[in-house]
Design a protein that fits this description.
Elements (H helix, E strand, L loop, with lengths): L3 E7 L6 H9 L7 E6 L5 H8 L2 E5 L4 H14 L4 E4 L11 H9 L4 E5 L9 H18 L11 E4 L15 H10 L6 E5 L13 H19 L1
Parallel strand pairs: 1-2, 1-4, 2-3, 5-7
Antiparallel strand pairs: 4-6, 5-6
Amino acid sequence: MTDVLVVVPAFNEEENVEELIRRINRVVKKDELLVIDDGSTDRTPLLLEKSGVNFIRKPHEGKGSAIREGIKNALSLNKKYIIFLDADLQHPPEYIPKFVDALKDGADVVIGSRWRNLHKMPRDRYLSNRLTTFFVSLLVGKRLQDTQSGFRGYRVELFKGISLETSMYETETEILIKLLKGRKVKVRYVDIPVLYGKERSKIKRGRDTLRFLRMYFKLLWQSS
């Protein structure tokens, strides 16, 4: 998978990052993995250095900023495909080859979908997922599944000429809207399990919902 870059945004993931890297290294080569440490204040950067993984340490600016850094690196390295997954072990890295296979088979965007098991989500996340997915589908004119999934794959060339303006959790939605609206982009899905451990969500519901709405209505206004 020499054309692939697997990017993991990480913020204060000392409990998970070592296991995650071990599991990712079983399915991709060492130089195909890049961790973006978003200014962690715990032992995450020390554990990353100890593991020998390729990683970039940056000031804490948000998950979206880490995603943008990953895209920039994929473009500069002339990678064909980029895979994102979260660092909290909610996304089984063993599924990465399924994403790569779908991209190599002609997909432009591959989303890890929990559609079949949404009922297993905590109620607040279920409602947020359904509402977000509905409104994003409405805006892009395509019926989508699970627009809040952080397990995704993209054909890197799609990002050429795309300007991303956000830096927090809404960036993942901004990417979908800008890549899909008005463009002939092939979207496929990989069914993934719903995994929630004891970790606390880093999403601040009120603040991040407002950010999503601001971004959404700005893009809606621009497209009208």
